Amino acid sequence: MKTPPRIQPGLSDSLAAAARVVAAVLAGRTPDATLAQTAPAIRPATLDLAYTTLRDFGRGDYLLGRLLDKPLKEAGIRALLLVALARLERRPEDAHTVVDQAVKAAAGIAGGRLKGLVNGVLRNFMRQCDGLLAAADADAIAHWRHPAWWLDALREAYPAHWEDVAAAGNAHPPLCLRINRRRASSNDYSSQELAAAGISAQILDDTALLLDKPLPVERLPGFAAGRVSVQDWGAQRAATLLDLSDGQRVLDACAAPGGKTAHILEGAAVQLTALEIDARRSARIEQNLQRLGLRASLLVGDACQPAAWWDGQGFDRILADVPCSASGVVRRHPDIKWLRRSADVAGFVRTQAAILDALWPLLATGGKMLYCTCSVFPQENDDQMRAFVARHPDARRRPTGSDAPELQLLPSATNDGFYYALLEKMP
Fold it and tell me: Which residue of the set 176, 254, 324, 374 is catalytic?
């Protein structure tokens, strides 16, 4: 007896909702607002479908171009076809179900008048699948699923590793936990609480755990009680590299959503000021600190305008976690690959330099500033540091846990891409 195809409950609804997310991104908007409007029951499936499609957009766009006689003007149908093509490539065993559900989803777009087009394009893909996928593999953008300018930048920066960086940017991100050392240890949490819940994890260090399989935070034992947080292992390096001691005055500039703020407070009894320019994002810092039982002085202000919020007392440590291209975290935010433009990187470089120059006078003599980005582009990282030191003779670069004056983490199975450089203020 033939096994019937797997039918995901509400697949047509999830396909339609994912298409709305993808259409929003292709229109130049971030996916957050559209996802927030998605019904909770289908939100996880919608997010998975939409993010998979966005990671693969360069490939889906290529395939769709080969399947259509002319560009498709109806944005909603184009997005639906992109979602369905991504699903078909990953679930060929469910092909007929996916096509049927995509046609059903098309009934709610453009008055349903393009259902036949959707059906024809997807069935044509099924017939030509092998040849189309082989052609896509031979096209750089379709194969690597990144814009051409981005691939050029990776080749220049990492001639021996650019393929690994690009491949990592297309993968599902790891889920790493940070243990609140004031309330638990990684060993105890892993061997007791996670084991009791049937969740397996790898211990990375004394506060970091890597889950074998990602899961919703609601399923994490002790999350609501503040014993654990979700934070990428690469992001967790900040608190360690800051060289913290009890009693220090610490500024976390550009602090939202507060993961690094909390990690600093979990590790040392410091006087911490968390600065954030966006009041709504500042509220998220407060929520995170409350859950973890931590306290900081929260300020809403512009890091480039310290005269509006600084009390005149020097800080012993400053974390400058600056705005950047986010090129090291695109697997978590796949819309970034397609919303960014090459010229945007230069804009981020100017903003970063302005923030660094504004914050440097706030650092006490002998104090240290940790510069941080979630970027893999050298212009935002080592090039930025070299230029800063050239402008500030009293700045000296210090090792970041090794002999190197910088730490460039590339995306991997354990962490996202991050850059760190430690600066000390000399007399």
Answer: 374
Taking a C-beta distance cutoff of 8 angstroms, is the pair 308, 234 a contact? no
0.90 exceeded by pTM: yes
Q: How far apart are CA 342 and CA 181, in angstroms?
A: 41
All residues at 6 or more sequence positions from 366 whose CB lies less than 8 Å from its CB, including other chains: 424, 425, 427
The total number of residues shown for the chain amounts to 427
Bond preceding residue 257 cis, omega within 30 of 0? yes
**What are the pLDDT tens digits along the chain (427 aa)?**
444 444 455 899 999 999 999 999 999 999 999 999 999 999 999 999 999 999 999 999 999 999 999 999 999 999 999 999 999 999 999 999 999 999 999 999 999 999 999 999 999 999 999 999 999 999 999 999 999 999 999 999 999 999 999 999 999 999 999 999 998 888 889 889 999 999 999 999 999 999 999 999 999 999 999 999 999 999 999 999 999 999 999 999 999 999 999 999 999 999 999 999 999 999 999 999 999 999 999 999 999 999 999 999 999 999 999 999 999 999 999 999 999 999 999 999 999 999 999 999 999 999 999 999 999 999 999 999 999 999 999 999 999 977 788 999 999 999 999 999 999 999 9
The angle at the Cα of 412, spanning 43 to 211, to the nearest 5 degrees, equals 55
Q: Are 249 and 270 in contact (CB under 8 A)?
A: yes
- Give the DSSP letter string of 363-427: EEEEEEEEEEES---GGGTHHHHHHHHHH-TTEEEE-SSSSSS-EEEPP-SS---EEEEEEEE--
Catalytic site includes residue 374: yes
Residue 270 to residue 248: CA distance in whole angstroms: 5
Is residue 355 within 8 A of residue 304, CB to CB? The reply is yes
C-alpha–C-alpha distance, residues 13 and 249, integer Å: 51
Sort strands 395-398 and 208-211 into parallel, antiparallel or unpaired.
unpaired
Tokens of 321: 């976690």
The bridge status of strand 395-398 relative to strand 249-253 is: unpaired
Say how far apart CA 97 and CA 102 lie, in whole Å: 8
Which of these, 38, 124, 117, 142, lies nearest to 88 by C-alpha position? Answer: 124
Question: Which domains can be identified in the chain, with CATH numbers?
Answer: 11-144 (1.10.940.10), 176-230 (3.30.70.1170), 237-425 (3.40.50.150)
Cα–Cα dist 359/309, whole Å: 12
What's the CA gap between 124 and 119, in Å, rounded? 8
* CB-based contacts of 290, cutoff 8 Å, min separation 6: none
**Could you tell me the CA-to-CA distances from 427 to 97, 311, 371, 396, 397 in Å, in that order?**
70, 22, 20, 11, 14
